[in-house]
């Protein structure tokens, strides 16, 4: 009886894995390019020289001026405003993230050569630091190891927010892990971050 139950459990595990891989494969193109147009996927962006290929294009329209969106974007970081994403998930890995709901003047100053911290220094040391390789105020931030965060004005009151994640050449095992685990998780967290910035920027405009 024990052997039969073990075989049955093994079959269910295999079936679940096969189903998961199938779902990831079917929906991959949609979540990798969530919100972005074909033109946005093909257009040159700052920081393209740092990547072998683009691993994801995510975009969202925010009904607020570029300057308002920038004020929220420029203060991201574990030891700053957080990432406006699912902090309870980030804190499961002891990242110690706390999302801000206000614009803090001290966090508005960022320049090329600075670093942005992804996780707790107490837990991870400086392993989670990403260097700002390029920055233009109210336009873009390029983070080495992540990608380009670009703001494009559609008009005086509307902003297109695009994130192009940078991919590098990897071995087959790492490519498989990216495909199965990192890419879906990255999409879930980055989408929430973009929505978090949108909600905060638009809320400020509505209040004013």
Brief description of this entry?
By secondary structure, the protein is an alpha+beta fold. Helix content is 42%, strand content 21%. It has helices at 2-32, 38-42, 66-73, 87-90, 121-124, 172-207, and strands spanning 53-62, 115-117, 129-136, 140-143, 147-155, 158-167.
Secondary structure: elements and pairs:
Layout: H1 2-32, H2 38-42, E1 53-62, H3 66-73, H4 87-90, E2 115-117, H5 121-124, E3 129-136, E4 140-143, E5 147-155, E6 158-167, H6 172-207
Antiparallel strand pairs: 1-6, 2-3, 3-4, 4-5, 5-6
DSSP E strands, number: 6
H-E order:
HHEHHEHEEEEH
Helix content: 40-55%
- End-to-end CA span: 69 Å
Radius of gyration (Å): 19 Å
Describe the strand arrangement of the main beta sheet, using strand numbers.
1-6-5-4-3-2
CATH architecture: 2-Layer Sandwich
Mean pLDDT: 87
Number of domains: 1
Question: What features would you highlight for this structure?
Answer:
single chain; alpha+beta; Alpha-D-Glucose-1,6-Bisphosphate, Chain A, domain 4; six-stranded antiparallel beta sheet; 42% helix
Q: What does this molecule look like?
A:
The chain is built from six helices and six strands. The radius of gyration is 19 Å and the shape is globular. The termini are far apart. It is α+β, with helices and mostly antiparallel strands. Helix 1 (2-32) packs across helix 6 (172-207) and helix 3 (66-73) packs across helix 6 (172-207). It has a single domain (33-207), classed as Alpha-D-Glucose-1,6-Bisphosphate, Chain A, domain 4 (2-Layer Sandwich), CATH 3.30.530. Strands 1-6-5-4-3-2 form a six-stranded antiparallel sheet, with helices on one face. The longest helix is centred in the C-terminal third of the chain and has 36 residues, at 172-207.
